[in-house]
Each structure stands twice: as C-alpha cells, then as structure tokens.
Amino acid sequence: MRRNLILGGFLSCLVVLAALVSFIWTPYDVAAMDIPAKLRPPSASHWFGTDHFGRDMFSMIMVGARTSIAVALVAVGIGMALGIPLGLMAAARKDSWLDELIMRGNDLVFAFPSLVIAILITAILGPGAINAIIAIGIFNIPVFARITRGAALSLWEREFIMAARVAGKSQTRISFEHILPNVLNLLIVQGTIQFSLGILAEAGLSYVGLGAQPPVPSWGRMLADAQTMVSLAPHMALIPGLAIVLTVLGLNLLGDGLRDLLDPRLRVRRS
Amino acid sequence: MLRYSLKRLISLILSLAVASLVIFFVIEIAPGDPASFMLGINAQPDTIEALRSELGLDVPKIERYLDWVGGMLHGDFGTSYTYRTPVTKMVTDRLWVSLPLALYALALSTLIAFPAGIYAAARRGKPGDMAVMGATQLGVAIPNFWFAMMLVLIFAINLRWFGAGGFAGWNKGFWTGIHSLTLPAIALALPQAAILARVMRSALLDILGEDFMRTARAKGLSRRQALWRHALRNAMIPVLTIIGLQFSFLLAGAIIIEQVFYLPGLGRLVFQAITARDLIVVESVVMLLVFAVITVNFLVDLAYAAVDPRLRQRT
C-alpha cells in the first residue's frame, strides 16, 4: 500500500511548496484590491477567480497555506515539546504519584470541550494567530503524552532496557537514549495526524474571527468572507474549502502511509 | 462490581471538583473586568464599583467559588451579568436546541456508519471496502462548517428545500423543528460518521481474527451469519466508547455549526457570553459540558464493567 504514501506525500508537498513560493512570488499582490474586477469566477488571468474586493484568490490561497502550516506546525511543536517528556516521565515512574498526576491531568484536559476552550483562550488573550497556536497547542500536549507513555511502558519491560539499567544508566538517560528513539516512529505518525487536525482547528477559529487577523490571509477567514457571497460567487466558498480538504486529506494519507512504512507488523496484519 | 462502581464514583466526583476549580479560576484571572466592560471606557470609577457590588464581584474569589459550586448542586447557576436573568433558564432554553441537534446528528452518524463499517469489514480488501474507506478519508478531511456552507448553497439557496438558517422553535410542531435542524445535523454528522465507520470496521476486523470466530465458522455458520451473530456484539465495545465521546463532542462542538446556521444553541450562548465578558454564563456552560463528558465516560465505563467482568479487575 504505497499509494497512500505517494498521494499523501504529493498533496502535502504541493501545499508546502505553495507556501514556500508565496514568500518570493505570488501572481498578484494579496493586498491589492481591484474593485471593478470583483467576484470574477476562475479564468486565465485569475486562476481561482477574485473575491469581493477583487483580490486574486490564487495568491490568497498561496499565502493562506503559509498561515495554516505555521499555526499547525507550531501547535504540534508545543504538543511534542511538552507532551513527549511528560509521557516519558510517566512511563519511567509507572504507578508513582507523578505518573498518576500526569495521567489524571491528561484526562482532565480531554474532558474539556476543546473548541470552547480554544475560543475562551483566544477571547481572553485576544484574537490572533499566536493565541490560536497556544489554544490548539494545549490540546496536543495530552495526545502526545498518552501515546508516548503507552508505547514507552511496553519498552520498559524489554531486555535491552534491562541491560541499560544494569549498566547503571539513569531513568532519564534511558528514556531519552533508548526509549525515545524507539517510539519516534509512532510520534511522527501521530504528528502528521495532529498537524492535519491543527489545520482544521485553525480554519475553524479563523472562520469565527478568532484566528489570524486581517490583512494576513487565512483559509478560514476567506470562508467567513464567502459566507454572505455564496449565492453570488460560489467559487469564493468552494476554493478555500477544497484547499483545506486536500491539505488535510494529504496529511492523513501521508500519516497512514508512514505508519505502514515504519511499522512492518501492521503491514502484515492489515493485508 | 459494587467496589468498582464506588471507586469510579469517587474518581468521578474528584474530577468534577478539580474541573470546577480550574474553570472558575482560569476564567476569573482572565483580563477584562465584567463591570468595567459593561459600562464602557468612559464610566466613572464609583459607577463601576457600584455595579461590581451589585453583581457580587467585590466578594472574595474563594467565597464566590463556593457560592457558585453550592448553587450548582441545587441546580442554580447564578444570574447572568448582561441579561440579569437566571443562567439556569438561559441554559435550559438553549439545551432544547443543542440536545435535539446532538441526538439527531448522532442518530444520523450511527445510521450511516454502522452499515458502512459492517459492509467494509465484510468485504475487506475488495473494491467495496476501498470505496468506503476512501469516502471516510474524505469525510474526516472535510471541515464541517464548510460542508454546512455547501449544504446551504445546494439545498437552501438553489433547491429551496430548507431555510438557510435560524430555528423555527418546537412550538410550531415537532416536524417543523426537526426540519430546521436537518441541515445542521447532516453537517455535524458527516465527519463523525466517517470516524465511526472506521472504528466499526477495524473493531470487526479485530474480532474476525479471533479463535471463537473460527469455531463459529467450523460449526457451519456462513461468513455472514458469523459476522452478524458473534462479531457484531463483540465489536460494540470500542464502537460504544466512540459514540459516547461523540455525543459530548456534538453537544459542545456544534459551536461553529450553530454560528453558520444562526441556531440559538449552547455553543452560540458561550460564544456570545465570552465576547460580552459574561463570566458566570461562560463558567456555568463550560462546567455543564465538562460534567456531560465526564459523566458519559463514567456511564460507559460502568456499562463495560457490567458486560465484561474482566474489566472490573483493571482500574
């Protein structure tokens, strides 16, 4: 099943490429308004048409990719940077008060309706891309902590870890030198999934006006702008939506493909 | 079973207590004093002080926390700062929209996911399975608020089968209410159905590899009979967990969909309360939602333990 990997990798690369190219070149200036040319459907001069201010949608999608990727990437980074050490710690001291504390804390975060809390955080700290990152990032912490702990627990029973303990290595050193490299595959796969969830969350927050603020283009806000125009110019709603769907689809397929590639046991069981 | 239930009950109460502490103090430390927010930037300091004492904001935080928790135990959530009406009434009014919407969406999601998941599992690796799995990949990737906009474009604007938004209310009859919740429920149900179908399929595939399934086949049951009679029942445990989680998600996660369809539900209530700094409403609704999640998880745990004695050993 290499097809997932190839299709997912292709779609993901396409989005990343669009974001990178937008730093040096976009067909039009994303801030340039051209009112006489507003609400034009896709054509040769404007591949994705124009919005209600006559801005070029193709350029906006390119720059919007930048926003989506940046928000989701940093949010996953926060989740990994805090979640992985917590998970490793909990596994190293299984059943201790520390493990109990970390796991109950995880349960607590899971019990909160994430979207409501994200809205709360952005409302408290003010709307904006940075605060959207924090809001999405917080909910990534328990995801990575739980996955790391679960995978690390079974590793602690293995003989090569026992050997490292006999050799006198501390729990911290074992965690980082032996456990972490062995759970990394799993974390990369989960990372792509959280990345795609982050893109969906960013779009949702921007849609209700709590994500990236104007003039920074973002796919979610393009959809919010499109809502009142949807009967006049359906392409305004269709194109940013398709951009989100293809990006998320690409990342999920990439995640599936990577899992099959990195975990040969799954390949046997699934076929 | 009794011991296990007691243990779970104690942990339920502890979780709720911690959650209430976190909710109250996180929201209270938020910048933006409700009184000065309500009166605007030109208000005199003594007017603000007067409103603060009227709203009970001058009482120490600990006391207010205890008041709030004590009130909730009696079903009294306090009084809204902006509307000056009991929060309990506001919440119950909104629940009449959010709860039916969540149940409607859950019913749709189950109706789509069960046949799809069972079909895919029964035809593992064949084109039918591939098609269902491809569709679920797409379903997971579609943002529900965008799907909602597309539904409005097609069924409300072009075909005029449904209104583009708003809620007719239940007093105009059951079917009118259901009709105005249909598009939002479909929009909410789609991604949930995709997830549920995947869970259903993989749960069934896990069971199909078990020894007792081979025994069932060996005693002469056809593949289909074995699937329906033995595999489906055993696959229900993971499926029920996900349904439980989805219900609480649908109750709270409808916030953006309610925004798309201008539905007067719980989500929109929180959203408006946050922007108006109506802290008591925010605290109460978030607490209610957390209560729903924790309680549903508790009930699901108990249901498992009742069905599967092995689970009582583990905690």
From TrEMBL, chain A:
Alphabetical list of Pfam families matching this protein: BPD_transp_1
Subcellular location: Cell membrane
Domain ABC transmembrane type-1: 65-255
Domain of life: Bacteria
Chief location of this protein within or outside the cell: membrane
Source taxonomy: Bacteria, Pseudomonadati, Pseudomonadota, Alphaproteobacteria, Rhodobacterales
Keywords annotated in UniProt: Cell membrane, Membrane, Transmembrane, Transmembrane helix, Transport
Record-level GO cellular component terms: plasma membrane
Protein's UniProt name: Peptide ABC transporter permease
Topology of this chain in the membrane: Multi-pass membrane protein
PANTHER family to which the protein is assigned, alphabetical: OLIGOPEPTIDE TRANSPORT SYSTEM PERMEASE PROTEIN APPC, PEPTIDE ABC TRANSPORTER PERMEASE PROTEIN
Signal peptide: none
Native source species: Pseudodonghicola xiamenensis
TrEMBL record, chain B:
Pfam families per UniProt: BPD_transp_1 (PF00528), BPD_transp_1_N (PF19300)
Cellular compartments annotated: Cell membrane
Superkingdom: Bacteria
Similarity annotation: Belongs to the binding-protein-dependent transport system permease family.
Coiled coil: none
TM ranges: 12-30, 101-122, 134-157, 177-197, 235-257, 285-307
Protein name according to UniProt: Peptide ABC transporter
Protein topology in the membrane: Multi-pass membrane protein
Assigned GO CC terms: plasma membrane
Any one GO MF annotation of this record: dipeptide transmembrane transporter activity
Stretches assigned to the ABC transmembrane type-1 domain: 95-300
Sorted UniProt keywords: Cell membrane, Membrane, Transmembrane, Transmembrane helix, Transport
